[in-house]
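User: Can you recover a sequence for this backbone? Please restate the input before giving your answer.

Assistant: Of course. Working from this structure:
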């Protein structure tokens, strides 16, 4: 299937499956360019730290303090992945999705299965600077504001790599 997701306001499509998890922000999923599903989540503090991505047959919606919602696009079931501190953003690398949060990183495979969760490696945010092979180069906020430290994460294990 060819899926894509948009977050549009004030669009009402008929004949789409609707999932209401909260109120305030609506994401529309298109299947082969036709509206297929709408998912509404809480909009807590503006439009930042809210993101969505489709990997395989799953829609992931990250929402600041509410973590990440995983919606199965085949049967419309959903669950929530708790994120320590707050949700930051997604990084997609081949058949894996990485959830970067306030304190750590969570790896999920293409079938929406938990793979690993890193130790707490930051106190106020993690930024991906790139991926080479099975290594993710990151910056971690250790002493806000501005106390960023560069690190490496082994994408096979979720462990930090000493340099």
């Amino acid at each position: 299937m060819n899926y894509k997701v948009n977050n549009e306001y004030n669009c009402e499509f008929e004949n789409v499956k609707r999932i209401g998890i909260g109120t305030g922000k609506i994401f529309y999923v298109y299947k082969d360019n036709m509206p297929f599903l709408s998912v509404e989540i809480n909009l807590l503090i503006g439009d930042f730290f809210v993101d969505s991505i489709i990997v395989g047959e799953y829609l992931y919606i990250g929402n600041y303090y509410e973590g990440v919602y995983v919606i199965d696009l085949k049967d419309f079931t959903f669950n929530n992945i708790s994120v320590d501190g707050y949700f930051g953003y997604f990084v997609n690398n081949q058949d894996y999705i990485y959830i970067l949060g306030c304190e750590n990183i969570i790896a999920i495979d293409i079938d929406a299965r938990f793979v690993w969760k890193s130790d707490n490696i930051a106190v106020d945010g993690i930024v991906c600077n790139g991926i080479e092979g099975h290594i993710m180069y990151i910056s971690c906020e250790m002493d806000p504001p501005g106390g960023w430290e560069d690190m490496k994460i082994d994408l096979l294990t979720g462990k930090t790599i000493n340099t």
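That completes the design. Residues 58 and 85 are 24 Å apart (CA to CA).
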